[in-house]
């Protein structure tokens, strides 16, 4: 017998995170492009980010036929939040500067790169990155490299930089609860043995 899931956060009903998910306004628009393999992942952080931001949209797929239409948002300048050669570090908005439409690929590094490969329009976008990174709170996964963040952490840090002094840390409440729940489910000893080395 399968467990009943919340239709909004997709978590099992007994572990629903909806009470922890904020509804935050932002000048910045966030377009999350999620690889299909991430949809049923226990820590689906792109979905949490989309639910927590009023000016965000989550699209799931590999090839996005409507991508050009999604990227043409009047009043926004578009950037791909993804490291790479020539990527510029995000900086706080100055006065009436046009806000960003941040396109954020969601998946493992390999799957995110595949999204860029099979959607050539993404490769034409200017790349933007985070300058000084806060350390990841994702204590259950070994990062593939220095500065690797979950999608929700990257979005939160980007918004904190762009819209300073406003803070978007409330987006991380359900993420932190997910991590704590996973640790509790595996037991502290198992967590320490497998993740604190």
UniProtKB/TrEMBL annotation:
<protein>
    <recommendedName>
        <fullName>tRNA-uridine aminocarboxypropyltransferase</fullName>
        <ecNumber>2.5.1.25</ecNumber>
    </recommendedName>
</protein>
<comment type="similarity">
    <text>Belongs to the TDD superfamily. DTWD2 family.</text>
</comment>
<keyword id="KW-0819">tRNA processing</keyword>
<dbReference type="GO" id="GO:0008033">
    <property type="term" value="P:tRNA processing"/>
</dbReference>
<dbReference type="InterPro" id="IPR039262">
    <property type="entry name" value="DTWD2/TAPT"/>
</dbReference>
<dbReference type="Pfam" id="PF03942">
    <property type="entry name" value="DTW"/>
</dbReference>
<keyword id="KW-0808">Transferase</keyword>
<dbReference type="GO" id="GO:0016432">
    <property type="term" value="F:tRNA-uridine aminocarboxypropyltransferase activity"/>
</dbReference>
<feature type="domain" description="DTW">
    <location>
        <begin position="2"/>
        <end position="187"/>
    </location>
</feature>
<keyword id="KW-0949">S-adenosyl-L-methionine</keyword>
<dbReference type="InterPro" id="IPR005636">
    <property type="entry name" value="DTW"/>
</dbReference>
